[in-house]
Amino acid sequence: MGTDTLSACPRLEPGVTLLRRSGETPHALHRLVTAELARREGSAYWVDSRNDAVTHALYEHAQSRRTLRGLRIARAFTAYQHHELVSSLPSRVSSRTSLVVVPRLPALYRDPDVPAGEARTLFDAAVTILDALAESLSVPVLVTAREGVDDQFTDALADTADRTVECHDTREGVAFAGDDVQTLAYHHRDYWQTTIPYWVELLGVAPEGDLAHVGPASVTTLDAVAAEGW
């Protein structure tokens, strides 16, 4: 992954960022995490559930093997294990930590073997810890929830998050969108594809009077414009 790919991924600011993804974007998380690690120095912590920490995907999207050198991954298989791992983060995370990643945060707390009231208590405690870490240490905390799964856990996570970023698959690659976040270009090995909003941001919008002589467009929709020309 080169610097062009880095620019295609949004930067993660300090605070809790909720990434909403569909089943069609399985590696959006890995792209986002490896891009952020390439920009920052310091340790990073990943509390995994449901096997989201796929090693080959992380190495595939990392700029180099060195990008992942500071990443520490711990995996939970139950809600109780997950809560314990999150509770251990305050003793590990410092102001030098570059990133905390907790994908599918609500997943294990939905398991039927955990009593409903206890599951919500454990989940709320985990979310509170992550929120406090993000605020007190000004560290980016990235959490995820799957698109189409809306319940009390997802609602609570969305309420806590400082920002929400949604991603979806396009024919050119993964697109990210949210407050102050929009994918404007898609970078490939041999070329890069721009979008209409990219040119609007770069050149601005022409006054309506300057377009009075322009006839109707022959193409009713246009998703992207090639960088090499129109």
CATH architectural name of the largest domain: 3-Layer(aba) Sandwich
Number of helices: 7
**What name does CATH use for the topology of the largest domain?**
Rossmann fold
- Quick one: biggest sheet? 8 strands, mixed
CATH class of the largest domain: Alpha Beta
The coarse overall form would be globular
H and E order: HEHEHEHEHEHEEEEEHE
Catalogue the unreliable spans: 217-230
Number of strands: 11
Strand order of the largest sheet: 3-2-4-5-1-6-7-8
Mean pLDDT: 80
What count of structural domains? 2
Q: Tell me the β content.
A: 15-25%
Helix content: 25-40%
How far is the first residue's CA from the last residue's CA?
Answer: 27 Å
Based on CA atoms alone, the radius of gyration comes out at: 20 Å
Look at the structure and name the CATH superfamily of the largest domain.
P-loop containing nucleotide triphosphate hydrolases
Structural class: alpha/beta
InterPro entries: P-loop_NTPase
What does this structure look like?
The two termini are 27 Å apart. A hairpin with a 2-residue loop joins β7 (173-178) and β8. An 8-stranded mixed sheet has the order 3-2-4-5-1-6-7-8, with helices on both faces. The chain has a 3-stranded antiparallel sheet with strand order 9-10-11. α5 (116-137) packs parallel to α6. The chain has 2 domains: 3-182, P-loop containing nucleotide triphosphate hydrolases (Rossmann fold); 192-226, no CATH class. By secondary structure, the chain is an alpha/beta fold. The protein has helices at 3-8, 28-39, 55-61, 79-88, 116-137, 152-160, 196-203; strands at residues 15-21, 44-48, 71-75, 99-102, 140-146, 163-170, 173-178, 181-182, 185-187, 192-195, 224-226. The chain is built from 7 helices and 11 strands.
